[in-house]
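Reviewers of the previous submission asked for a worked example of the structure-prediction workflow described in the proposal, so we include one complete record here. The input consisted solely of the amino acid sequence. No template or homolog information was supplied to the procedure at any stage.
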Amino acid sequence: MSIAILKEGVPAPPISAKDQDGKSVNLEEYRGRKVVLYFYPKDDTPGCTKEACAFRDNFPKFNTVGVDVLGVSVDDERKHKKFAEKYDLPFRLVADTEKSIVEAYGVWGMKKFMGREYMGTSRVTYLIDEQGVIEHVWPKVSPEKHAEELLAYLQQKT
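From that input alone, the workflow returned the following structure tokens.
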């Protein structure tokens, strides 16, 4: 199965899962606000930690422009909780243990690392608009610079 990222202008697939605190997360609750939905491979790994910490460090700026941040990986609630506490992450991490969200958003598929092929989550970010439609897609993400790249995009749009 290869990666088949969703396109801009299509409705964002629904999300129904739990966050790091065991609370239900439903995309509908964010209607009326923009949402950065970022997919990452695994909690507490070097690239994923850099990306999460960049979102953490820029979180007040996202709030200022009225944008919520949700991180999604296939790790469970317990791993998300430990990761969020370790790095003081102020946003929700969605536990997609059944892989329904990563599959719906087209970010689950064959990956290759050091010659080894395996199934995993690609680092992709979607900006979902106030009506629940995919406004912009970042199919390739640099973990360290991505939060600032998103903010630059958001600030040019306002």
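The CA atoms of residues 105 and 116 lie 24 Å apart. We consider this example representative of the routine output the project will generate in years two and three.
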